[in-house]
Design a protein that fits this description.
Blueprint: H1 2-51, E1 55-61, E2 65-74, E3 77-86, E4 91-95, E5 104-109, E6 112-118, E7 125-133, E8 136-144, E9 151-157, E10 162-167
Antiparallel strand pairs: 1-2, 2-3, 3-4, 3-5, 5-6, 6-7, 7-8, 8-9, 9-10
Length: about 170
Amino acid sequence: FASSSLHHAATAPRSAVAELGVVRRLAMRNLLTTLFALMLLIADASATEKKGFAGSWFFSVGNAANFSLDLTQTRNHIQGYHTAIAHRGNRIDAVLPGEGKPSITGDIVAGVAHIRFHRGYSDATGEATLTLKDNKLEWKITQSSGAHYLPSSCIEKNNFNSCDCTIGCDN
């Protein structure tokens, strides 16, 4: 009986040590899982940031008007092409890839793209800003002359489904 008590007393600390080891392994596994998940979130955010203004952006105002931009970004330089369709398709202003120089060029300063654009059907030009807010693109003309059918201002909503636009036409 005495040897049985001694044996039980001797194994109790080993059991506590074993349980402590299991707890430490579980804690380490949880820590590593959390760190891995955090690294994935940071990588995803970084990839989103790196995309910037590059890509195809589409704005639609019901059946009345559409506006799209195809943009590339190299560091702080931006360029691309536009298509603007207004008055239910009766007015179209477009410069497409393969039809000459990009219709949009500019530079990005402090997260805002300051661009110059020329229209597809005339030599008229203008300036606008592009701003990204919560992965939504905001377009705003700051200066223009001549007739055009590009929106004066436009904020993409719902990722390519609809937007709030003010279609402007200078005469």
